[in-house]
Design goal:
Number of helices: 13
Radius of gyration: 25 Å
Distance between the termini: 33 Å
Shape: globular
Strand content: 5-15%
Oligomer: single chain
Largest sheet: 4 strands, mixed
Structural class: alpha+beta
């Protein structure tokens, strides 16, 4: 299941090249020897009357789909089988469905040769257990959370402390994701600021004027208004999401949260009157699996466009070639920053869950 989840959620780019094309490249100088070897092998393994010979010719190899295309079909079939398992609870099905969406599980591709991609063995184990819907170590020792909730399956799987528990460290996860997003803008030469207060007249529940998590200046938005990025993380397994069929329809939780955020903004626009507001609100919604909401995916495409414009005419895009921090799986802007967001989210979330399991032992 881990392999299925990993491959189903990664952002793939099919190169279109086939294994056979690469094979032919190895023998460009003299294909005769290779083809003779194939013919000899065929003579050994193929039956004379076989409709589908076991050993294909070089020409046949070259018409085959890429390994990536073949593998994707296998992963899709396995994913469908898992989601149709009648023994799955609605919560687990919603979680797994969210795990198949863009952005979820990209931390699995990260190579820990850079500090930002490293985590302790204990935390990595918890990240995997959370991902695979497995009970967390020592979670069975928790009888009750410090918030007063009696232990249930959501607590054993760590989900209780991700968004539901008022005592959880969800703000820390939020802030880690916020800081990575701010850093990627600065990488593009955009001067952004974080936690900008006073944008709205309304007060938050903690008595302060609502801030922008990341305020992007109008000069970088292509319009006459700044963008106030509002980062939020929501759980596809909570009661409201399940009522909206998050176990059947992907990204339902993210969509509902996005609409709620915009509704709040529209109320502020009306309150501002004819003068309006000098910024537009851009909710960036992630599900607790790391999945990007549809609107967050659109935002990311805008980021990629900013990067293309910033890099136009500057030569290689490989970070290895330009002397920047890189890994074999994060060697370009796109892969590096998507993995950075994913690792920051999953690692911090797991660290928080581990801490609360310890805090609530015997409670």
């Amino acid at each position: 299941m881990g392999a299925v989840a990993r491959r189903a959620t990664a952002v793939h780019q099919d190169t279109g090249s086939t294994a056979a094309h690469k094979v032919r490249a190895w023998f460009d100088d003299n294909n005769d020897g290779f083809e003779q070897a194939l013919a000899k092998l065929a003579d050994k393994v193929d039956r004379r009357d076989a409709t589908n010979p076991l050993c294909p010719t070089l020409a046949t190899l070259e018409t085959m789909p890429s390994q990536n295309s073949l593998s994707n079909e296998m992963y899709k079939a396995q994913c469908k089988r898992l989601l149709n398992d009648q023994d799955l609870s609605k919560e687990d099905r919603a979680w797994m469905l969210s795990c198949t969406q863009n952005g979820a599980g990209l931390w699995l591709n990260a190579i820990p040769s850079l500090q930002k991609f490293k985590c302790s063995p204990v935390v990595f184990k918890a990240m995997l257990q959370i991902r695979l819907c497995l009970p967390l170590a020592y979670a069975d020792g928790v009888q009750q959370c410090k918030c007063g909730m009696v232990a249930d399956n959501a607590m054993r799987l760590g989900r209780h402390w991700m968004t539901k528990c008022p005592k959880g460290h969800r703000i820390i996860t939020h802030n880690k994701v916020r800081d990575v997003i701010a850093a990627l803008y600065r990488e593009l030469g955009v001067h952004v600021t974080v936690e900008v207060r006073g944008l709205y007249a309304q007060l938050t529940s903690y008595g302060e004027h609502k801030p922008a998590d990341v305020l992007v200046p109008a000069s970088a938005t292509g319009s006459d208004k700044a963008q106030a990025l509002d980062i939020t993380i929501t759980d596809p397994t909570n009661r409201t999401a399940l009522h909206n069929r998050s176990d059947k329809v992907p990204l339902k939780a993210a969509s509902a949260r996005y609409k709620a955020k915009l509704a709040t903004h529209r109320a502020a626009v009306l309150e501002a009157g004819a003068g309006g507001l000098p910024f537009t609100k851009v909710p960036l919604v992630f599900e607790t699996t790391g999945a990007m909401g549809k609107e967050t995916q659109i935002w990311w495409e805008g980021i990629r466009q900013l990067h293309r414009e910033a890099r136009e005419g500057l030569g290689p895009t490989s970070w290895r070639e330009t002397g920047m921090d890189w890994t074999w799986t994060a060697n370009h802007f796109n892969t590096f920053w998507l993995q950075s967001i994913s690792v920051a989210h999953a690692r911090t979330q797991a660290e928080s869950v581990i801490q609360w399991i310890g805090t609530c032992q015997g409670a």
